[in-house]
Amino acid sequence: MAKERTRNDMRSRIAHIAARLMAEDGIEDHALAKRKAARQAGAPDSRQLPTNEEIDTALRTYQQLFGPNEHLLRVKQLREKALKAMRQLEQFNPYLTGSVLTGSAGKYADVDLQLFTDSVKALELYLIDRGIPYKASQRSIYSGEDPRTIPVFTINDGDIEIRIMVFSPSDLRLPLKTSPSGKSMERAKAQAVEALLAQDLL
């Protein structure tokens, strides 16, 4: 019992250190934040690592304690930029995902969008035709236990990066995750983002 309590205390400590790193240092990757936090906490046992959800909870607590007004303004600005991009990319069925949607976005967070289209090339031509500079890359996303490599286009809106992950329309029916054991990524269409912004004004 004492050993279990000690393990839970360590998990909580790592979660709060990881949350601080994400909020203050701009780390967006949960796995990286966990590794750094575990080293700082002196926890070599990987079974003591918190889940992404535990870190997100700790991050929200941190943001409520330290500069809540600044945090709310930052989330509002990011959601506005996300909505602007979603309207521009409407023909490719865009959804907002990530920390900007959940409201846990840190000081240096960027915007993550998911597009569901039959043609990656059509998206690329759309950006080229409008003179929108972009960087093309790839990342791994999981559907169940199986990793998939998907194309990612990154564009800039001022000092904010907008990462566009491109999926096929059939992927809308699948739970998409950043890791095999992770939680399915939440996503929201433009109308839902508009509703969130309306709430921010209340």
What does this structure look like?
By secondary structure, the protein is an alpha+beta fold. It folds into two domains: 2-65; 68-200, Beta Polymerase, domain 2, CATH 3.30.460. The chain is 48% helix and 21% strand. The chain is built from seven helices and seven strands, in the order ααααβαβαβββββα. It has helices at residues 2-25, 30-41, 52-65, 68-88, 99-102, 120-129, 190-200; strands spanning 94-97, 111-116, 135-143, 146-157, 160-167, 176-177, 187-188. Strands 6-3-4-5-2-1-7 form a seven-stranded mixed sheet. Helix 4 runs antiparallel to helix 7 (190-200). The protein is globular and about 50 Å long.
**Uncertain segments:** none
Number of helices: 7
Sheet bearing the most strands, described?
7 strands, mixed
Helix/strand order: HHHHEHEHEEEEEH
Could you please say which CATH topology of the largest domain applies here?
Beta Polymerase, domain 2
Backbone shape: globular
Kindly report how far apart the N and C termini lie.
46 Å
Give me the Rg, rounded. 18 Å
Give the domain tally. 2
Number of strands: 7
Strand content: 15-25%
Question: What is the architecture of the largest domain at the second tier of CATH?
Answer: 2-Layer Sandwich
Structural class: alpha+beta
Helix fraction, binned, reads: 40-55%
Overall CATH class of the largest domain: Alpha Beta
Query: What is the averaged pLDDT score?
Result: 87
Strand order of the largest sheet: 6-3-4-5-2-1-7
